[in-house]
Structures are given as C-alpha cells and as structure tokens.
Amino acid sequence: MDPRRNPYAPGAGLQPPELAGRDALIEDASIAMDRMLARLPVRGMFLLGLRGVGKTVLLNRLHRMADDKGLQTGKVEAPENGRLPQLLAPELRRILARIDLIEATGQAVRRAWGAIRNFCSVFRVSAGDFEFGIDPERGLADTGVLQQDLPDMLIAVAEAAAARNTAVALFIDEVQYLSADELAALIVSCHEAAQRGLPLLLIGAGLPQIAALAGNAKSYAERLFSYPEVGPLQPAAARAALERPAESHNVTFSPQAVEAVLGLTERYPYFIQEWGFHLWNAATASPVEYAVVEETLGQVIGHLDRNFFRVRFERLTPLQQKYLRGMAELGPGPHQTGLIATALGVDPRQVATVRQQLINKGMIWSQRHGETAFTVPQFDAFMRRQMPVLEPHVPRRRS
Ligand SMILES: Nc1ncnc2c1ncn2[C@@H]1O[C@H](COP(=O)(O)OP(=O)(O)O)[C@@H](O)[C@H]1O
Ligand SMILES: [Mg+2]
User: Fold this and answer.
1) Looking at ligand 1, which residue's alpha carbon is closest to its atom 6?
2) In terms of CB atoms within 10 Å, which of 76, 168, 231, 316 comes out highest?
C-alpha cells in the first residue's frame, strides 16, 4: 500500500489512529473530573502498565478531556534524576494565570501567587517573571522542605480555583522516576486537598511499581488513589486497533493474518502499531494475507530490536545486561529472584545491587517480594537474540 497514506502510529506517545479498548477507563476518569467540578469527593488515579501499553497516549487523552470540561490543567513528565519543583512551578504559574483571568483578582488568587513566588525562591527555580507586585505571605511554601511547601503551593492554587468555581487537574507521566520525597509531597498535597474538600485532581502514569512506591511513601496512599491497570488489549480491541485504521482506506486483513498479529504482539498496543505499519507498507493487495505476515516477520523483529529494545539495552552496564540475560534464560517471567541468581551462577546477595539499579532504571520491577519481572514486554526474547550465550557471572574480588 502507499506508504504516504500509512495510517499507523508506532512510537512513544504517538496518538494511535484508533484508541482501542480504553473506554471504561476513560469513562471512570470522566466521572472523576465531573465529580471534582461538582466538588464531590474524588480519588486520584495512577495508570499502571508496562512499556508500550499506551499509558502516555491515554494520559494525553485524559488531559485533553479535562481541558474540554473546563478544568485548569498542567502536565509534566518526570525525568530520570530530574527535579519536580522545576517542572511543576511553571505549570502551576500557567494554571493560576488562567484562573486569574476568570474574574477580577481576589484574595485567594493573590495568596496563590505569593505561594508560587515563595516556592520558586526557596527551591531556586524559575517560573518566569511575576509581573505585578505580590506581597508574599510569610510562612507560605517557604520552608525549603518539599513535603510542606509543595502541599502549601498546591493547596493555595486549589483554593484559588475553588474561589473561581473551577478545579485543578495535574497530569504526571513516568511517575516511577520521582524521588520518594517528591512522590510523598504530591501524595500529601492530595491528602490535604481531599480533607479540605478542595478541587485538586492528580492523574499519574507509569510503571507498575508505582503502587508500591506510593504505599511506601505514605501508607494512606492506597486509599487516596485508584490504580487502574493499563494492560495488553482484549482480543476484540486488539483486532480493532489493527483493522479499523486500514478499514477507512478500504484495506482489510485476512482472519489468519489478524490472528497471527495478535499472537506475535501478545496484543500489546505498541507492537500492534508496528505490525500494522510494516504490513501496510509490505502489502500489495487487500485483503492482506497471512503470507505477508510471514514475509515481514524478520523485518519487524529487526526494526523492533534496533528501535525499541536496543536503545534500552545500550543504557545499561555490562553487569546489568548480564543480569537481564540471566533472567531471559528463564523466559518471560515473572521469576523468583533467587532463581535468577542461580541462572547466573551466584548467590542472590552478590547481584542485589545490580538488581536494584535495574529497578531504578525502570527495566525490571517486583510485584511480590522475591519476584522479578521485565517492564518491557518480550524483552526476554530480545535478550536471547542480543546475547545468544549466557556466560556465568564471576564477581570481582574487592582488593
Ligand atoms: N489503546 C490503543 N490502541 C491502539 N494503539 C495504541 C493504544 N494505546 C497506545 N497505542 C500505541 O502504542 C504505542 C505506545 O503508546 P505509549 O502511550 O507511548 O505507551 P506507554 O506510555 O505505555 O509506553 C504508540 O504507538 C500508540 O500509538
Ligand atoms: Mg509513556
């Protein structure tokens, strides 16, 4: 088919032509936003899932929906080793500027401007100029302790929103990269807002370990948020993700071709986009037959290796790579942590540090104590392609 008209959208955060299988989740978020605007109690959400399941596009979708509903929104992506105050302060400044436009300046809005200014000054972050004379209140978001100042600032902005009959919604992607202190500060903010009945909604997305990280940061986080799982698509949704984008161009797939793609992708949205993309370009006629899937297999795997898996692999030290190779020996997982060490020929304690490093880098996670799983679907098969032989690990002696 004509590559110029290829409708598929493989790539991180790229809006898919058909956002399949997420209607229930979108409806839950829609209810939460409407309740927030009506000043009814609402729990925040953390969308949890592996790489490539579609968390970012879903978060973007919810962000747009919140805008359409008239909530005051901001979005940040937590960078690895980054600083939350630096990212959040400008967003809040923008939000407050929009709130400020709603009516003539009032007390709550003035106070919130002061809070943001204090916050920026004590955490030495910039959020642009503050044009007019603000009398910053002393003792508001100015202690230098993030778990006090971030809630102060967010509460002040939520109060300003409440005074203007609107609500604040914050969207945070890659939550697993926040430090424990930053995550705790966000949770405390939501907790305080909930207690005071203030309209502050947090919707985060990230790797599944977030549920445990949030619980460790503040034990009440479990009840304060819901943790909807964003997983591989159900079969009907997976078929729709593959077939609908082509249908609008009068291109169809044979049933065998569809089932083959569902099997190869394990219904992971990113893999479906890649397959759709490559099949579209390779096919010369509709319906696209199973034979095209067979012919394209090597090309798609090569493309995924170069563009999806290897970039992650190359950010790792040789020892980290070897740990993942040991895991891959056992299959897709999750695996008992002890058995991974056994596969590597060492005692678990000798690889505890490297395992923790891989968790911090977001390559693996642990659903249950003593268990380890990949955060990237089909990474085990990639590791076996990349490092065909598993060499036993010989820890270096400290001199
Ligand atoms: N519900 C969906 N239906 C079809 N394709 C999707 C869906 N969700 C995501 N995708 C596609 O999957 C890929 C990965 O999406 P992304 O949001 O970046 O995943 P994540 O943030 O979970 O790693 C993108 O190419 C996107 O177009
Ligand atoms: Mg993402």
Assistant:
1) 269
2) 168
Strands 200-206 and 44-48: parallel
Q: Domain ends where: 313, 331, 364?
A: 313
| pLDDT surpasses 90 at 137 | no
- Cβ neighbors of 51 (< 8 A, separation 6 or more) are 207, 270, 375, 376, 377
Closest atom, ligand 1, to C-alpha of 14: 27
Is residue 18 included in any domain, yes or no? no
Last residue of a domain, one of 226, 253, 284: 226
Q: Which of 198, 179, 176, 177 is nearest to 189 (CA)?
A: 198
pLDDT, residue 67, reads 97
Shared-domain flag, residues 43 and 158: yes
Residue 293 to residues 91, 237, 324, Cα–Cα distance (Å): 45, 20, 29
Q: Residue 264: which CATH number?
A: 1.10.8
In the structure, ligand 2 is a single-atom ion and the residues with CB under 5 Å from it are 56
19 lines ligand 1 (CB under 6 A): yes
Structural domain span for residue 348: 318-386
257 and 323 belong to one structural domain? no
Q: 348 burial class (0-12, 13-18, 19+ CB within 10 angstroms)?
A: middle
- Domain assignment present for 292: yes
Give the atom of ligand 1 at the shortest distance from the alpha carbon of 57: 17
203 plus 102 within the same structural domain: yes
* pLDDT surpassing 90 at residue 160: yes
Distances (CA, A) of 135 to 114, 167, 299: 6, 24, 63
The reply to whether ligand 1 has any atom less than 6 angstroms from the CB of 326 is no
d(CA 355, CA 51): 19
Q: Are residues 202 and 337 in the same domain?
A: no
Nearest atom within ligand 1 for CA of residue 10? 25
Q: Which ligand is nearest to the CA of 62?
A: 1
Ligand 1 proximity of 375 Cβ (cutoff 6 Å): no
Q: Which ligand is nearest to the CA of 276?
A: 1
If asked whether residues 289 and 339 sit together in one domain, one would say no
55 in contact with ligand 1, CB cutoff 6 A: yes
Q: Is residue 106 part of a domain?
A: yes
Residue 399 has pLDDT above 80, yes or no: no
Q: Which distant-in-sequence residues (6+ apart) come within 8 Å of 180 by Cβ?
A: 213, 216, 217
